[in-house]
Amino acid sequence: MAARIYQRPKSAMQSGKARTDDWVLEFEQSEARKADPLMGWTGSGDTQAQVSLSFPTKEAAKAYTEKYGITARVHATPPKSLKLQAYADNFR
């Protein structure tokens, strides 16, 4: 079983920082998705891909994977950079 651990990014529709401190563990798909011949929807028999676990810290997520023998990759959070500029700069 393979999984990935990452910090939830801020949504484009979100101005606040709610739920951005949580770390998420998601399992990777073990089988390919296929189209349903009747409806045309895509799906697979892999139910682990639907599971998403939330942890308060990265260390807690790592401890969970070690406890249950899950191989996990940790995706680093990109650094946050703010571009501070004044409103008057729009009219230069």
Automatic annotation (TrEMBL):
Annotated protein name in UniProt: ETC complex I subunit
The UniProt keyword set, sorted, is:
Electron transport, Membrane, Respiratory chain, Transit peptide, Transport
Annotated GO biological process: electron transport chain
Question: Is Membrane found in the keyword set?
Answer: yes
Cited InterPro entries = NADH_UbQ_FeS_4_mit-like (IPR006885), NDUFS4-like_sf (IPR038532)
What residue stretch is flagged as signal peptide?
A: none
A Pfam short name:
NDUS4
GO cellular component terms, alphabetically, are: membrane
Locations listed in the record: Membrane
